[in-house]
């Protein structure tokens, strides 16, 4: 079985409020899958549906070949889950809490808990209520990883972690992948998942707007172009060119964005004397911002393998 998560036409409404609308998505075994979207986009809703913590209004969910509702006990054993609002009994010491959670999963060797805690610099003897937000998040990470689950579902896993610990976390994800585990992680920051994710999905307002590899998304980003000419040029020579948007001409300087091939712009430019040229690929974070705000067109016109609905 190569598909680990399969969501089909999943819709969740909270009364009159939108949670998710017609979301279809497939995650393959061994993938690290980044699930991105701004606050309120529906990331936690999707994850809660996968774990049967809430029930869909319509649509289906399959996780590890199971129905999250009918096979809840089996699934929870095979999954490592970090909730976005991870909460445990604050009176317990971190080590006691982790041993307890490990026993619920059939027992996890103390050495494994200690190894993870050492890597994350988590003090196992501290009472949970005395820990900072970031240190509590480390307890959440240890409990998700400690039993080597087939599938890790992590909701905003780096929330509250300092950059060094974030780095350690990314190493743990890379190791999980190398061991054949599948990782589904949500985030609202692209740079965080960019380094480890094989593919990313972006959701906005409860709908999937793109699914692709990081490299392919980057290839689809705009080119920001600035051209300096020897003499003033007229904007109308440039602005109907294919792929050219946001055109502005200020005397001898032209700036624009180019979506796709810059061929037409280059040919139009070659009719003039050029004194300077600069072209920068749009920063991935900017590309995501464009998806978030709806400035970037969604990908309905292209096939599901590169965009989407079940990739
Ligand atoms: N229990 C609930 N009752 C009513 N509305 C809810 C409930 N849970 C979520 N929502 C709404 O569903 C939408 C999606 O919320 P969700 O928590 O899934 O987003 P998210 O992408 O995880 O956001 P964040 O990054 O802020 O955690 C939001 O508009 C939210 O207000």
Automatic annotation (TrEMBL):
Signal peptide range in chain numbering: none
Key words of the record: Antibiotic resistance, ATP-binding, Nucleotide-binding, Transport
Database matches in Pfam families: ABC_tran
InterPro entries reported for this sequence: AAA+_ATPase (IPR003593), ABC_transporter-like_ATP-bd (IPR003439), ABC_transporter-like_CS (IPR017871), ABC_transporter_ATP-binding (IPR050763), P-loop_NTPase (IPR027417)
Limits of the ABC transporter domain: 5-230
Domain of life: Bacteria
Subcellular location(s) per record: Cell membrane
Membrane association type: Peripheral membrane protein
MF GO annotations: ATP binding
Family to which this protein belongs: Belongs to the ABC transporter superfamily.
UniProt protein name: ABC transporter ATP-binding protein
Organism: Actinomadura miaoliensis
